[in-house]
Amino acid sequence: MSDSTPADQFFDAAIGLLQRVRDEEAENIGAAGTLLADTVATGGRLFAFGAGHSSLAAQDIVYRAGGLALMNLLTVPGVVGVDVMPATLGSALERVDGLASAVLDTSPLRAGDALIIISLSGRNALPVEMAMSARSLGVRVIGVTSVAYASETRSRHVSGTYLKDHCDIVLDSKIAIGDAELTLDTIPAPFAPASTVVTSAVLQAVMATAASTLAERGIEPPLLRSGNVDGGLDWNSRVFEKYGDRIFYRH
């Protein structure tokens, strides 16, 4: 009989998922990093979008020390995290047809850019429509999702399709349906979600690949430094000045 605690079990589950994603998604992670490097090298801009808790992983790669300065957050009012009141409104907005197109029509996205769309289930109208509309604009789309949802849930988009069906590259987070890793006989619902840990790790692996790919081509990757280390703010100011026309979170 195991003496492991629920904390131990969660760490084991998260580590297992990370190892599985590292092994099974290595090719796709490499392709995604290369796509971002290609976009940077050809003058394109980078964007990330996620709704609800999926937005946490998107925010994790925007304006981040050690991250690519050119990664911008594509925002949809009411769904960026759980800051909208009531929080349940954000979930409802993910199912609204036409919202993604309205946002893209007023966003700076254009042909030649790259967009990362994060949606654990990939079944709601917002991420599906976001991917479809972005690709129709000539934007390359990287989807981060749990492919398992497509086999065991029903799409909430009118097309009956999922995020994974409208991406140039799909990164499968391997998260089980319901996003909860632990169960106990004394607790009626599963608990301890791991999707944020895994999705953030996947995206940081993509960012690392993009930076190293640029360097291999003789292009200095536009990385940010921490503003809390000596010289960091001056470094970032130079990066902002050089790439200001491709950075939208400062405007």
Could you characterize what this model shows?
With 251 residues, this protein is α/β, with parallel strands linked by helices. It is built from 9 helices and 7 strands. The strands form 2 sheets. A 5-stranded parallel beta sheet has the order 2-1-3-4-5, sandwiched between helices. It has a two-stranded antiparallel ribbon with strand order 6-7. The relative contact order is 0.19. The mean pLDDT is 94. Residues 36-221 form the SIS domain. Keywords: Isomerase. GO terms for molecular function: carbohydrate derivative binding; isomerase activity. It comes from Streptomyces cyaneochromogenes.
Write a concise keyword list for the protein shown above:
two-stranded antiparallel ribbon, UPF0309 protein EJ357_20175, globular, SIS_dom_sf, isomerase, 251 residues, single chain, SIS_GmhA/DiaA_subfam, 12% strand
In short:
It contains nine helices and seven strands; from the N terminus they run H-H-E-H-E-H-H-E-H-E-H-E-E-E-H-H. By secondary structure, it is an alpha/beta fold.
Q: Please report the distance between the alpha carbons of the first and last residues.
A: 58 Å
Task: Examine the secondary-structure arrangement and name the CATH architecture.
Answer: 3-Layer(aba) Sandwich
Give the low-confidence spans.
Answer: none
CATH level 1 class label: Alpha Beta
* CATH fold topology: Rossmann fold
How many domains in all?
A: 1
> Helices and strands: which structural class?
alpha/beta
The helical percent reads 40-55%
Strand content: 5-15%
Tally the helices. 9
Give the helices and strands as they follow along the chain: HHEHEHHEHEHEEEHH
